[in-house]
Amino acid sequence: MNLNSKNVLLVGLARTGISTIKKLYEKGAKVIVNDIKDEEKLKDILNDLKGYDVKYVLGKHIEDISGIDLTIVSPGVPLDLEFIKKIKSANIEVIGEVELSYRLSKSFFIGLTGTNGKTTTTTLVGEIFKSANKDTYIVGNIGNPVIDTVDKSNEDSVLVTELSSFQLESIKEFKPRISAILNITPDHLNRHKTMQNYIDAKCRIFENQNENDFTVLNYDCEITRELGRKCKSKVVYFSRKQILNEGIYVKDNIITINLNDKEIKLMNISDISIPGSHNLENALAAVSIAAVYGLDMEVVKQVLKTFGGVEHRLEFVRQINDIKFVNDSKGTNPDASIKALKAYDNPIILIAGGQDKKSDFAEFTKLFNGKVKHVILLGETADIIRKSAIEQGFNDCYKVENMEEAVQKAYKLASSNDVVLLSPACASWDMYESYEVRGNHFKNEVFSL
Questions:
Q1: How far apart are the C-alpha atoms of 53 and 25, rounded to whole Å?
Q2: Are 247 and 259 in contact (CB under 8 A)?
Q3: Which CA distances in Å does 94 have to 19, 34, 84, 125, 340?
Q4: Beta strands in 36-77 (DSSP E)
Q5: Among 83, 69, 1, 65, which Cα is nearest to 30's?
Q6: Is 305 helix (H, G, I), strand (E, B) or coil?
Q7: Is 59 left (phi over 0), alpha (psi -120 to 50) or beta?
Q8: Residues 6+ positions from 318 with CB-CB distance below 8 Å
Q9: What digits encode the pLDDT tens for the residues 381-428?
Q10: 90-132 pLDDT per residue, tens
Q11: Can you spell out the DSSP letters for 76-120?
Q12: Each residue of 257-287: pLDDT tens digit?
């Protein structure tokens, strides 16, 4: 892909924006940057870009699109905005950073998506490939821009890529050699408008694959199971509930690999280091990817025995007076937080709430009875979750203004053997710039007790 002397418009100075601008500049492109935030709000990012000859249009949508050869949108920018439609109608190609990186890269792509479990599974797969001595990069929605690997990786490198629905919306040629969809439950409906639009965005991960590629799907999720009919690639299912005729499944508590008429008993599920049935599904997905790639299963087994999980996902923070504090800030939708609640048998003091993504909280709040002692709510959805909890017959809810109040209230209410669990069931953007910042604030407040 030749970018030399091309006029490239970058829309949205998000996390990937800095890396994308620098790479475009290195490739000889003339870069125009547009962001609706003004210069004051972007001053830290702009400082990082000092020395780069970039034209900025800030504080508004760009109006003059004459002479633009290519537009790159950040994942947070909806593609149905009027000025994006205007750009497309002018026959200017609109892609995202993942698509740009793919066109510039020669590496072997593994792409993972799903509503929940993406970061844990992506990290786990990356650790497995690293342990198998593959030149591995863990990239994408996990926080490491794919574009940063373009000049470091080669045709022998493996890019284990976490992909959000937002990133998949802006692909065109992107084709992972192995794709995986872990599960699909309602999420981001404020952006996608309908569940079908959300599913369609996730499906784009395999749309360019062919019969020489693999797609790994969760058999236990009805939506992902049915997606197998749409794949042109070789479909491999995994299941923790069913013994499959072919695929990766649990039989007599043993992870079993049954591919090409050959059955391999890998390990007992009790030997997996990360807790919870959802993490068993994540492990099965990772095993599936490793198996179709052809990795040594002994390497896979050893990593599963030692892998400790990821930050902000059921992360143990501290124990005070036999009260455990757990950071699950990455629980950004009700289904993720349901999984977190199910991971513990101890009584739970739950801290929840955040940005309103038009989620339905009924299944989440239904689980409170008999499992949760008290719920502490903050953010845009505090009243919405409380209303849903009351409708389910659960009344022990407290509303607070910030994380400091939430942690102090939780500690005051907790008793010996309780778990204080931050699992918001919502995005963080009403109060924080990311779930990581939210999780770190929670941990700081816990260590201040």
A1: 8
A2: yes
A3: 18, 14, 8, 30, 38
A4: 54-58, 70-73
A5: 69
A6: helix
A7: left
A8: 324, 325, 446, 447
A9: 999 999 999 999 999 999 999 999 999 999 999 999 999 999 999 999
A10: 999 999 999 999 999 999 999 999 998 999 999 999 999 999 9
A11: TS-TTSHHHHHHHHTT-EEEEHHHHHHHH--SEEEEEE-SSSHHH
A12: 999 999 999 999 999 988 788 899 999 999 9
Helices 435-447 and 403-413, axial angle in degrees (round to 10): 50
This prediction's pTM: 0.81
Cα dihedral angle (189, 285, 169, 339), rounded to 10 degrees?
20
Size (the chain), residues: 449
Torsion angles phi and psi, residue 433, rounded to 5: -80, -15
- Cα–chain-centroid distance for residue 262? 33
Which stretches of 195-276 are DSSP H helices?
A: 195-203, 222-227
Q: Which residues of 55-65 are buried (b: 16+ CB within 10 A; e: fewer)?
A: eebbeeebeeb
Q: Is the separation of the CB atoms in 157 and 137 below 8 Å?
A: yes
For residue 39, the one-letter residue type is E
- The Cα–Cα gap between 278 and 56 comes to 44
Q: Which two tokens stand for residue 340?
A: 């977190």
For 317, other C-beta atoms within 10 Å of its C-beta total 18
Distance CA 300, CA 101 (A): 28
**Distance, C-alpha 278 to centroid of its chain:** 15
Give the pair of three-digit tokens for residue 182.
Answer: 């872990």
> Taking a C-beta distance cutoff of 8 angstroms, is the pair 174, 208 a contact?
yes
Please answer whether residues 160 and 197 qualify as being in contact, where contact means their C-beta atoms are separated by less than 8 angstroms.
no
Phi, psi of 193 (to 5 degrees): 75, -50
Helices (H), 220-271: 222-227
Which H/E stretch holds residue 413?
helix 403-413
pLDDT tens-place string over residues 43-90: 888 888 888 899 999 999 999 999 999 999 998 888 888 999 999 999
